[in-house]
Design goal:
By secondary structure, this protein is an alpha/beta fold. It is built from eleven helices and 22 strands. The strands form three sheets. Strands 1, 10, 11, 14, 15, 16, 17, 18, 19, 20, 21 and 22 form a twelve-stranded mixed β-sheet that branches.
Length: about 400
């Protein structure tokens, strides 16, 4: 069992271990699958799906990703301020008034409307610069993007605007993880039709992308010359049915804590808020300092399991904001400071984030993104503890080996 020497500032016995070697492994898996030419874009929005955007971005770029993607300007600025200079695409809407920020930090916005493009063009001309952009097509996601009926005309007009450079065109597939490929094929046919029509009118695109993690695994025809890797880069499959399809993923995150109290309570004792659990026998209860404020879902009350001494222990009672209780009556020798694995492996035991997500009716994405920043991130690379995110100083601190 790996033992961590805690930096002096990290007194709270709860943390996430992020194995950057696993990020590298997962990207190598995709490189083998997609071939040497297709580019990989690492999606690090939502603080790298809870893993820490800066360290994940660095590892991804070292492992073959050529660009990054985030949702909003603020996420991109954090990467730039950390010294990352790779191309960064903004997936969401970026108000044209943020044009100076885009130029200063060398960011690439997504555009899906002529009015926005016109404002960008005016700013670019006024500042004697050229703004790169990607165009988004809504082929069936029903979210942001140009609708197919208007797309070609709008794209041609945007292509003629001064001060703008169309670097890419993309769409988002709504059902790429499904076994029924019908809807995805319809989206790709629409997308291809738009690209062909634009090409006929003299508008071409250096980068064409449609494949998210699911499509990168499940739809070779959706890969074009760039794939966007999000959840799979972190070692989680977008859906269970995508396992065994040529990509062997290893989760990068393990969520851990320690036992802070062990006590025996008599039969009939109520545990936690609302008295939702009462013991049916004398019970050994261990308290773990992790709760819903840390991202451990309250709906796992009386449902979830954790690992201690390699054994599964059920969560009993209501999950609190900062603490949860587990029944360890069946596990010999549990004591203060024993390591607890919330998500991950310990000994021969395994509690996956997918299991927890199934229990509360959500997806692995949500539980990963819910992991709060008050949980320190301990980074491992090349088989050793390399750095930690310090919540007090809000920065990453390298650990001398």
């Amino acid at each position: 069992m790996r033992q961590i020497m805690y930096p002096s500032f990290s007194a709270r016995p709860a943390w996430a271990e992020i194995n950057l070697d696993n990020i590298a492994h997962n990207l190598r898996q995709f490189r083998q699958q997609i071939g040497p030419v297709t580019k990989m874009m690492a999606v690090v929005k939502a603080d790298g799906y809870g893993h820490g955007a800066v360290k994940v971005a660095e590892a991804a770029l070292q492992s073959g990703a050529s660009s990054l993607a985030v949702a909003f300007v603020e996420e991109a600025i954090a990467l730039r301020q950390a010294g990352i200079d790779a191309p960064i695409l903004l997936f969401g809407y970026t108000d044209p008034v943020q044009f100076p920020i885009l130029v200063h930090y060398k960011l690439t916005p997504t555009v899906f409307g002529l009015d926005t493009a016109l404002e960008y063009s005016e700013f670019a001309v006024d500042h004697d610069t050229v703004l790169p952009l990607h165009l988004k097509i809504d082929t069936g996601m029903g979210r942001i993007g140009l609708l197919p009926d208007e797309a070609v005309e709008v794209i041609v007009r945007i292509s003629r605007l001064p001060g703008l450079k169309i670097e890419g065109i993309y769409t988002h597939l709504a059902a790429a993880e499904e076994n029924d490929l019908t809807y995805t094929r319809e989206q790709l046919m629409l997308f291809n039709r738009i690209i062909d029509s634009c090409t006929y009118k003299g508008v071409t695109f250096p980068l064409v992308h449609a494949a998210n993690s699911a499509a990168a695994i499940n739809h070779p025809s959706a890969r074009y010359n760039l794939v966007r890797l999000g959840i799979a880069m972190y070692g989680c499959y977008p859906a269970p049915n995508l396992q065994g399809k040529g990509i062997d993923l290893i989760p990068a995150l393990t969520f851990k804590s320690k036992v802070v109290l062990v006590k025996e309570v008599p039969v009939g004792s109520a545990i936690s808020y609302g008295c939702t659990f009462r013991t049916t026998k004398d019970t050994l209860v261990a308290t773990v300092p992790v709760g819903y404020a840390d991202g451990y879902c309250r709906r796992l009350s009386n449902k979830g399991h954790v690992l201690i001494r390699g054994c599964r222990a059920p969560v009993i009672g209501t999950v609190c904001m900062d603490q949860l209780m587990i029944d360890v009556s069946h596990i010999p020798g549990v004591r203060l400071n024993d390591e607890v694995v919330i998500y991950g492996r310990q000994g021969g035991g395994h509690v996956s984030i997918e299991e927890a997500a199934d229990q509360v009716g959500t997806i692995n994405y949500e539980l990963l993104c819910a992991l709060d920043k008050r949980i320190p991130r301990y980074y491992f690379q090349e088989g050793k503890f390399s750095s930690v995110y310090d919540i007090i100083e809000d920065r990453i601190i390298s650990i001398n080996s």
